[in-house]
Amino acid sequence: MTPNTCWLCKIFRAEENGISSKVSLEEVLQWSQSFEKLITSKYGPMIYKTYLKTEHSDENIEFWLACEAYKKITSQRKRISVARKLFISYVQPQAPNEINIDSPARKAIIKNIQEPTQSCFDEAQRIIYMHMERDSYPRFLESKFYQKLKHSLQTNGNNSMVN
């Protein structure tokens, strides 16, 4: 283990369930092409979330990912339960992980939360996606965090890094 890669190993060990990962240089380079490539790649969301923690805005990616999972729920009973959890955690005023959305989007969710549909968080999710794409994503690409990751993979020569 070289000193250049040690910081990344610590991040992976600290991440959810001690995920042991292999990140390729190709994947990391694709992240700079578009925010969508970052957020839909295998390890991008986890790495981006770790970066957002340094900005104290990881609730954005958590909410966005939770909305992606929410849309796949087919059981109305489970949808109601998960919708309420999303509302309590992210949407209601003074929520523990309150997201930054406008009043009309918040009011629409409040109105629809009693009988939530698959799409009741779509507008809030779109707003959060735009916040991340416009604000934190450009900072992520310029950050020492991303630059060190890219550099460590480029200097390893094997195009991958194992935790």
Automatic annotation (TrEMBL):
Transmembrane segments: none annotated. SMART domains: RGS (SM00315). The lineage of its organism: Eukaryota, Metazoa, Chordata, Craniata, Vertebrata. It comes from Burhinus bistriatus. PANTHER family: REGULATOR OF G PROTEIN SIGNALING (PTHR10845), REGULATOR OF G-PROTEIN SIGNALING 13 (PTHR10845:SF32). Pfam families: RGS. InterPro entries: RGS (IPR016137), RGS_sf (IPR036305), RGS_subdomain_2 (IPR044926). It comes from the Eukaryota. This is RGS13 protein. Residues 34-150 form the RGS domain. SUPFAM superfamilies: Regulator of G-protein signaling, RGS.
